[in-house]
Amino acid sequence: MSGEEDSDPLALHDVGVVLGGRPIVRQVDLSVAAGEFVTLLGSNGSGKSTLVRACVRLLPLATGTVELFGTSIERFRDWRRVGYVPQRSTATSGVPSTVGEVVMTGRLARRRYAGWATARDRRAVREALELVDLAAREGDPVAQLSGGQQQRVMIARALAGEPELLVMDEPTAGVDQHSQEILAGVLRRMLSEQTTVVMVAHELGPFRTMVDRAIVLRDGRIAYDGAVPDERDHSGDQHHLHSSEPVDGAAVPPEGVWP
Ligand SMILES: Nc1ncnc2c1ncn2[C@@H]1O[C@H](COP(=O)(O)OP(=O)(O)OP(=O)(O)O)[C@@H](O)[C@H]1O
After folding, report:
1. Bias category Basic and acidic residues: which stretches (predicted)?
2. How remote is the CA of residue 98 from the centroid of ligand 1, in Å?
3. Residue 253 falls within a domain, yes or no?
4. Which residue's alpha carbon is at the smallest distance from atom 25 of ligand 1?
5. What is the overall mean pLDDT for the chain?
6. Which has the closest alpha carbon to 14: 32, 29, 36?
7. Containing domain of residue 196, as a range?
8. What ipTM does the predicted assembly reach?
């Protein structure tokens, strides 16, 4: 299938990923529409990171297909349309670069030719740093920043590429409250501009009211795909979510479905 303007930014069919001979992700079917904010929840080891890494081609598929904007991932070349924020532990450790340099790497997929950054590149970097409230740290080595600030650098890096689809792997893990609120503000703005967001999360925190849909993985399979219940409202319609074990405080699970 060739890329078409009205195709979903992300569509998975029967996706399976095998790591070290073990099936980690199994039979995942999932479509994410333009402008949607989807969170991926599930207990440790349920396969969330593996799934999003396969979606940005960091891991190969054992079965099934992934399409980005209507193009199969094997043939997809338009990576400037996709932003990815990796899990924090792998993000900036050992990188001696400055904040500005790291964020500038987010522009690389947009550069037509190798060469110096253009005025537009520099402006995009500055704006992304302003959005995450780090403009004053542009010339500082990333290593001098706190963990939460480093995570904001990685988010700015993805934003600098002006992606239409933003995939984030636990951007708030171990991040202070101030950084979480800054990220919530950034996402609110991106969603108002129709950016599509897929976010692996442990806690919804300030994002709860913004999320359109929660996907819960259990043992590599989708165990729930639906609305996020209001914290106080455990009654109601098709999203009737009986109170039982919260998923890492993220949401109240429907009986027999959530991990
Ligand atoms: N390279 C690998 N080889 C073999 N197994 C792996 C590899 N990478 C991850 N796994 C295993 O895959 C399973 C799922 O890991 P994954 O990181 O996708 O889970 P997760 O849901 O993101 O967990 P967490 O919330 O802890 O980040 C785990 O059991 C993990 O040990």
Report:
1. 229-245
2. 30
3. no
4. 44
5. 83
6. 29
7. 10-226
8. 0.95
* 76 pLDDT higher than 70: yes
> Which residue is closest in CA terms to ligand 1's atom 17?
49
What does pTM read for this prediction? 0.83
Residue 105 tokens, joined: 């790497």
* Domain CATH code at residue 116: 3.40.50.300
Nearest-angstrom CA–CA distance, 16 and 11: 14
Top mutation candidate among 24, 46, 217 for ligand 1, by most atoms within 8 Å of CB: 24
Per-residue model confidence (pLDDT) at position 67: 97
Cβ-contact 59, 53 below 8 angstroms:
yes
pLDDT score at 231 = 61
Structural domain count, the chain = 1
Burial profile 192-213: b = 16 or more Cβ within 10 angstroms, e = fewer: eeebbbbbbbbbbbbbbebbeb
pLDDT of res. 4: 56
